[in-house]
User: Fold this.
Amino acid sequence: MTDPRSAHHEDGFPDQEQEQPGLTDQTVPTPDHGEDTYRGSGRLRGRRALITGGDSGIGRAVAIAFAREGADVAIAHLLEEQEDADRTVRLIEQAGSRGVSFAGDVRDEQFATGIVVDAAERLGGLDVLVLNAAYQKDRDGIGTLETAEFDRVFQTNLYGLLYSARAAVPLLGPGSSIIVTASIQAFQPSPGIIDYAMTKAAQVAFVKAAAEELGPDGIRVNAVAPGPIWTPLIPATGWDAERLATFGQDTPLGRAGQPAELAAAYVYLASDDASYVSGAVLPVTGGKGL
Assistant:
């Protein structure tokens, strides 16, 4: 058995800073997406999936797992993340699945809508939509929160989510699923990322309402709520050296999680194993309660 306290990087993280959106090769240590560890067993064979924010971090880990479980996978990413996206597509193809990437910003309604239609055309249909794209930034306080930054968080985390979900619903059939990457921040909000936490709470409301609406059509809607996970988004958040050095250390397991540790949660929710699971928020938090 693996001791969960020491299964991955146990310490804090070195002082570093990136511009948004954050890139994998500039993140120290490199996040573990399951490249060398995830083993599939055909649980998603024949499915077609679109993952927003699929180039790195949690999105890349999910893309790898889906592909190794037999799914064809399309990912959406920012143009600045093209190198990360190309690497993810290669990993999808190495698993024997079709991989497609789309560069753009989900804040753009035309792009966020078009990727759904284009993914369905390129993959021959759409069965799983993972709404994972997100933006967060450290804030000094409510009194200095700039409207442009507030807009960017809401437009990325909520508007983009709704644009893609709205376009996907007519394309999804019975047995399909929508999976949202929410956050422990929806339940335990931190003042320093208050606008991000607000969007994550709204995502949980979306999941519960959409599950009720779409259940009669045989479409399941769920969320994964990560705790502190080491991805390129973290050094791009703007936290100081002390915050990075203690990142994840306050969990009961005593460390931050790695993207690879979330992949199986998404596979479960996308698979027939979760055929009676809808409207759920699955925590992967290192023991922190929701």
User: Anything to note?
Assistant: The mean pLDDT is 97. The helical segments are 57-68, 82-94, 109-123, 147-168, 194-214, 241-245, 260-270. The radius of gyration is 18 Å.
